[in-house]
Amino acid sequence: MKFYSFWRSLASFRVRIALNIKGIVPDEVINVDLMKGEQCQPGYKAINPQMLLPALIDGDGPILFQSVAIMEYLEETHPNPPILPQDPRGRARVRALAAINASDSHPLMVPRVRNFMEHELKLDEATRNKWIKHWIGEGLAAMEGHLSRDKDTGKFAHGDVVTMADICVVTQATGAGFFQVDTSPFPTVKRIAETCLAIDAFARAHPMKQPGAPASLSH
Ligand SMILES: N[C@@H](CCC(=O)N[C@@H](CS)C(=O)NCC(=O)O)C(=O)O
Question: Whose CA is nearest to atom 10 of ligand 1?
C-alpha cells in the first residue's frame, strides 16, 4: 500500500486517522509538498489527475482518491473496528456530519482556492484570510448546531464510539487552529475534538506530528 500525503493536508489527515483506527500501516508514505506545488508536477498529476492529496494505491491499483471515498474503501475492506454505525439512519447522520467538513467547509480553504484568490483575483492577505475564517466558522457553526441538539451525540459525535464524523470534527477543528479561528463558541465540537485527539490513533495522525512539519505554525 502506497499513501501519498503531506503533513499539512487535512484531507490526508482524515485518511491517516482512519488508517490508524483500523491498524493499517502503509508500506510507503510518499510526501507531496503542497507548499512547493509538487501536487501540480507531472509525476503526481499522472497519479491523480485532480492534483489533490491524498491518494492511496492498494496492491495493483487503480489509485484511490478523495479522502471520504478512501475512508469508505477502508471501511469496506477492513470492517473492524467500524467507523460507520450499522443502522441506515446512523450511517446517514455520520456521513452528513462528515460532509460538513469534507464537502462544504474544507474545500473552500485549500491551496488551489487560496492561490486563485491571490494570483487571479488579486485579493490581499487580509481579504483572503477573511474568506477562509468565514467558511471555517460556518462549518464549525453547522457542526455545533447538529451536535449540540441531537440526542445521538454522545461522548463522540455519534454515540460513544468513534466514527467518520469524529474524524471530520477533528479535521475541522484542526483547520480552525491553523487559521486562528477560536473554537470556544462551539463547545460540543471543541469537546469532541479534544476527546478524540487524546486517542492515540488521532494524536499520531496529527499534521504537526508528521515528517516535515515545522515546530509551530504561524498561521
Ligand atoms: N475533497 C478532497 C479534497 C482534497 C484536497 O483539497 N486536498 C488538498 C490538501 S488538504 C490539496 O491537495 N490541495 C492542493 C491544491 O489545492 O492545490 C478530499 O477530501 O480528498
Answer: 9
